[in-house]
Amino acid sequence: MSRLGQQVERVERVVRSWKPGESVARHLSDHFSCHRNMGARDRRECRAWVYAWIRLGRSLEDLPFAKRLAVATYLTTPEPYPALEALLNSELSDIELPSLQSSVEEKTNAVARSFPGFSLEKIFPGSSRISSGLDRAAFLSGLFLPPELWIRVRTKYREQVIQELTDRSIPFSVDPILPNAIRLPNRTSIDDLEASRKHLLEVQDRSSQATAEFFQPKSGETWWDACAGSGGKSLLLLDQEPGLHLTVSDRRPSILKNLKERFGLAKLKPDELVVCDLTQPETDWPEQMFDVILADVPCSGSGTWTRKPEGLFTEVDEAFFQRFRSLQQKIVKNLSSRIKPGGRLIYLTCSVFSAENEEMLSWVEQETNLKLQQYRYFEGAAYRADTLFGASFLN
What we know:
- This protein is 39% helix and 15% strand.
- The protein is of the alpha/beta class.
């Protein structure tokens, strides 16, 4: 069997053994662990082709595997290389297609002409519920552009980090709007950088960094990062204003244990780390009232499905939206009672669905004492980043 045939067969085995809902990255890692004889090039191609196949979601499922794989790799790859050219010549030579370097719009239009069952809307589940506040075409086209690696440099070390990246000949670009946000090619290894070892930088998506425009912290204020997760926004907040009093919570003890380590490595210290369930008011909650509560609430994660394309196999129906909406409403309602008069709630999601975003705004004003100040989407398509939503309310 030719090398191309072996690679297609390998990719098919990986894809067929993957179950929707399972992490693609973890599935690939497990596969590579079981096949240690694979060379670096084979692993690189296999990973790229598996992700490409999954980025088609449930579109073109009737095509033979190799032809569907060829369409997927054509749409997701901007530059030719021998194995890809062999695959395209084998499966798509009878179709007139623009070059790989063409825009995603040109390529998707050409694929749609050749394969009538193809459309961007069919790839993204629940596409009819995507917010009208987003550039829908840009967002959907971005599904075929794997995200870049974004880092946030701690302000006083910015020039030092830039100098090390330059000295190491690592391609990078500094964001023109967010001066501490630096963009690196996807899968760039930064672990051996001195700046990384000294924790002068954090891996943080550009859109996540951009939400800081809502923060505007002042020294002496009391803040509660109520759904801290991995803690990127807490770290950003303390970098912005070391003089504030920060409480951090999550319902998962393991998450807070990891976050405590991250704070220690960055030489930052929140006032309190609390394990609590935000759906159960007053149960193990922090005792005080707060000037600002940051609520990065549980959500569909649909704004991250470019980075985690396994989400494209999610079953999106009304029950799906109701499950998240009920949880979000319960959390916001409970948190609203712990905001000082004149204080703020910052509501964040990584969703593109209006049901979790704009539709929540009127509910919050109707069911609490909070009044909307501002809201916006942090669109990531142009930056090869996630898409997030944020809103600020005043008590």
